[in-house]
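Bumping my old thread because nobody answered last time. Still need a sequence for this structure:
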């Protein structure tokens, strides 16, 4: 059982601790800054625990370091060494920060975890450390308070109890200071926003204002005050009736303000207005509800813009639209009239084109008939005459060899000329209208033609046509022969090619003709001209022959050669 003197001593210590804590509370209330208040708490904790020195460190969560903000009893070297301590370090304060509870090192000389810092401790003159985290009421770590003893020390439960009270004082002080700092920063921000708001609304040309729930002006910007010719104090608390608005307009505006409050929805409207200063125009205004924390309409915010110029432009646009509509109607009538004229003229052009096409077809048919007639006349008349002439020359040559050898030689030369002429006439006759085309069909006629042309022109010609090529109607066969003939004539005369390829194919009721050379080709400009106008008598004739039978003709040409392709439908009827 404790003795009476020991009880009295304990009571005196407890009373002294209470007095010290009470005194500290008064100092904290008078402390002007955070660091000064933390220094007061540290001094009181050192005195209460009979420690020799101590430090208070604030935790920087972004940098993850502890920084000293208050100290007692340490020299500069120690403070420089521990000015910033990593939260991951093995110091007593680092351990306390991570664990969230106090760390007691009764003797640094016997504590294994403190080996790296024994020299620093010896130089600073302490043997024991008590580090306690500063925790806010919401659980956030704020920093560390550490006290140091010159001799090994084990704190009693009562000392730890009193230390917890000082720790809570420090934590509350930091919390309060941070709250005050945030409140001060927020206050400065609000003041700045208010200045920006006032400056912005005072510098714009639009009118900005607010109404209270009674429909009276609570704020008016400078632009609207200038329109009225009033000062701010003359407008605040007034409604539209008080500001001498026309009764009908004032009643409408007051009614709309109440509508926004009742419906909790904004509105947009426009009205003409002339102020007492004589300034006026046409205005568009917007009333919008501003809600309080409970969702009720606290005030009504309004803005008004002068739309007089827009109204003037809209009126001009309406007038212009009416003029445009009249012009459009007149133009539409003219377009309809001109369209009818063009349709009639186009019909005339089409009719004339059909007449020209029919004439061209008749001319081609007449040309083919004339060729057939001339060929027959050359063969039957001139050809037979030359045969008789050759026979007579042969008889004369026989008689002349007996009497006049020199005359016989001249007659033989004449006979050779007549035979050559006979051959040329026969070739010309066949080219005008090959009899093989009627007698043996298209393949035989083409082979004969290609063979003779290759012999005369020294072109290397490849003809591809199947052996089982079905006989075509006579008119189609003639068109195919003429297309090949015209193509080969162009190649021989114009392309400069040493070779040519002819392909004739039948498929699915069509016959296709493809003639290709390896000459110098045509320029893009010349090709475009030919495709657009069909220039050249030969090409025009080819186009017309193909068109006559509803076929298609295409021409492709590059500097590597030219390819002409024609496709004709074949009707077996």
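Sorry it took so long. Here it is:
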């Amino acid at each position: 059982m404790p003795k009476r003197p020991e009880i009295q001593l304990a009571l005196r210590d407890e009373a002294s601790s209470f007095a010290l804590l009470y005194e500290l509370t008064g100092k904290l209330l008078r402390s002007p800054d955070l660091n000064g208040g933390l220094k007061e708490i540290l001094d009181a904790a050192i005195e209460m625990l009979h420690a020799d020195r101590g430090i208070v460190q604030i935790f920087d969560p972004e940098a993850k370091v502890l920084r000293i903000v208050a100290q007692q009893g340490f020299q500069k070297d120690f403070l420089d060494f521990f000015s910033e301590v990593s939260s991951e370090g093995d110091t007593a304060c680092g351990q306390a920060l991570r664990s969230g509870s106090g760390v007691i090192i009764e003797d640094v000389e016997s504590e294994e975890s403190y080996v790296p810092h024994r020299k620093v401790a010896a130089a600073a003159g302490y043997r024991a450390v008590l580090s306690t985290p500063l925790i806010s009421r919401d659980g956030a770590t704020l920093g560390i308070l550490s006290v140091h003893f010159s001799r090994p020390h084990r704190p009693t439960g009562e000392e730890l109890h009193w230390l917890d009270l000082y720790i809570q004082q420090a934590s509350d002080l930091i919390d309060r200071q941070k709250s005050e700092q945030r409140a001060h920063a927020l206050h400065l921000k609000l003041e700045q926003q208010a200045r920006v708001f006032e400056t912005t609304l005072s510098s714009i040309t639009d009118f900005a204002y607010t109404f209270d729930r009674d429909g009276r002006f609570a704020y008016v910007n400078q632009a609207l005050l200038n329109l009225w010719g009033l000062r701010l104090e003359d407008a605040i608390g007034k409604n539209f009736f008080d500001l001498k608005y026309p009764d009908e307009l004032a009643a409408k505006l007051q009614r709309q303000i109440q509508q926004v409050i009742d419906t909790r929805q904004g509105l947009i409207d426009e009205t003409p207005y002339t102020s007492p200063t004589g300034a006026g125009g046409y205005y568009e205004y917007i009333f919008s509800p501003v809600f309080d924390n409970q969702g009720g309409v606290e005030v009504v915010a309004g803005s008004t813009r002068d739309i007089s110029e827009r109204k003037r432009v809209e009126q001009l646009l309406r007038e212009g639209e009416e003029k445009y509509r009249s012009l459009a109607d007149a133009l539409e009538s003219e377009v309809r009239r001109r369209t009818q004229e063009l349709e009639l003229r186009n019909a005339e052009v089409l009719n004339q084109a059909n007449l020209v096409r029919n004439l061209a077809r008749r001319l081609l048919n007449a040309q083919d008939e004339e060729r057939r007639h001339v060929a027959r006349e050359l063969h039957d008349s001139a050809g037979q005459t030359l045969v008789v002439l050759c026979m007579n020359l042969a008889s004369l040559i026989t008689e002349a060899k007996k009497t006049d050898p020199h005359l016989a030689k001249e007659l033989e030369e004449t006979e050779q000329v007549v035979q050559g002429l006979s051959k040329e006439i026969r070739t010309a006759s066949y080219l005008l209208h090959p009899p093989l085309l009627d007698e043996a069909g298209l393949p035989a006629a083409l082979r004969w033609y290609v063979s003779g042309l290759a012999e005369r022109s020294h072109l290397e010609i490849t003809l591809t046509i199947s052996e089982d090529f079905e006989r075509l109607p006579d008119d189609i066969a003639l068109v195919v022969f003429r297309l090949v003939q015209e193509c080969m004539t162009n190649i021989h005369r114009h392309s400069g090619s040493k070779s040519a390829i002819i392909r004739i194919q039948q498929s699915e009721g069509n016959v296709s003709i493809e003639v290709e050379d390896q000459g110098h080709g045509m320029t893009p400009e010349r090709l475009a001209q030919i495709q657009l106008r069909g220039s050249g008598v030969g090409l025009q004739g080819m186009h017309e022959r193909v068109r006559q039978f509803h076929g298609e003709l295409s021409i492709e040409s590059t500097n590597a050669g030219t390819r002409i392709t024609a496709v004709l439908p074949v009707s077996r009827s």
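The chain has four domains: 4-182, 204-306, 309-433, 441-569. Let me know if any region looks off to you.
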